[in-house]
Write a structure and sequence with these properties.
The protein has 11 helices and 12 strands. The protein is α/β, with parallel strands linked by helices. The protein has 2 domains: 120 residues, CBS-domain, CATH 3.10.580; 140 residues, HUPs (Rossmann fold).
């Protein structure tokens, strides 16, 4: 499949010297989109809503109301852009673009036709395309494993929804079993030191209960019967690989950038393909 089939329109095209206020205004109605930065006919960067927010005012509203007007008056698009973006042609294939993004450690590619910006494509678009291909393939999966962390104050449950939703969609399509695995790292040595065997066991039971309480609500009620929860302790990569081997998983779905250390380490040791979302 060509990338022109899955690309989306950018939020707009700006120059590096344009005021950041212009970027904020363009992104406000479409925070999921990306602005493309062009200088002298050459793509030099991209700006996301998160990037614009990162160079903005304090996250404390009481301070932000005073800082924001002053900051907008002097910040430019260059201050918020991510430089050296991946640029691809409309006829590039989805797998080729995915490989380039992984090699570059980036999530978004700009699609150019000659000297014109015609679209953007990010990791989510590529994953969606891959899911559609997987769903239409004649061979069925018997077991799918989805590896998840725990919700945090920074990312919340929202950041875990995408890999879980993808795994659920593929499992439903193929009538596959789904195992949700979470690996709790070993207790820090300074915490474990001096604990009696009983106290250590109580602490581990508490961690297990907390993990279950955090993860089960992520599973849709109608899918709960088809999902098995596997929580274990130890090295994260080793735990995911062991869980996949024990479940005879034919696909592992996990969160994170395709080129991240955790994803690469898991893919090298996994007994089946790994899909990072």
């Amino acid at each position: 499949m060509h990338v022109k089939i899955v690309m989306r329109n950018p939020a707009g095209v700006l120059a590096p010297s344009d005021p950041l206020a212009a970027a904020v205004a363009r992104l406000a109605p479409h925070p999921e989109r990306v602005l493309v930065v062009v200088d002298g006919g050459r793509v030099v960067g991209v700006v996301t809503e998160a990037g614009a927010r990162a160079v903005g005012p304090s996250t404390l509203p009481a301070l932000a109301r005073y800082e924001w007007p002053a900051l907008l008056a002097r910040l430019t698009v260059r201050d918020a852009m991510s430089p050296h973006p991946v640029v691809v042609a409309p006829e590039a294939t989805v797998p080729d673009v995915a490989r380039v993004l992984v090699a570059a450690g980036q999530r978004t590619a700009v699609v150019m036709d000659g000297g014109d910006v015609v679209g953007i494509v990010d990791a989510r678009d590529l994953v969606r395309s891959l899911v559609e291909d997987v769903q239409t393939t004649p061979s069925a999966f018997g077991c799918i494993l989805v590896a998840l962390g725990l919700p945090t104050e920074t990312h919340g449950a929202r950041g875990l929804r995408m890999p879980l939703d993808i795994a659920l969609a593929i499992a439903r399509r193929h009538g596959a079993r789904l195992t949700l695995v979470h690996v709790m790292p070993w207790l820090a040595a300074r915490v474990a030191a001096g604990l009696s065997a009983g106290a250590h066991a109580d602490l581990e039971r508490g961690r297990l209960a907390a993990a279950r309480a955090a993860l089960w609500p992520l599973v849709p009620r109608e899918a709960a019967r088809a999902v098995r929860l596997d929580i274990r302790t130890g090295d994260v990569v080793a735990g995911i690989v062991a869980a996949a081997e024990e479940a005879a998983a034919e696909l592992i779905v996990m969160g994170g950038q395709p080129g991240s250390r955790l994803v690469r380490a898991t893919a090298r040791r996994a007994p089946c393909p790994v899909l990072a979302a």
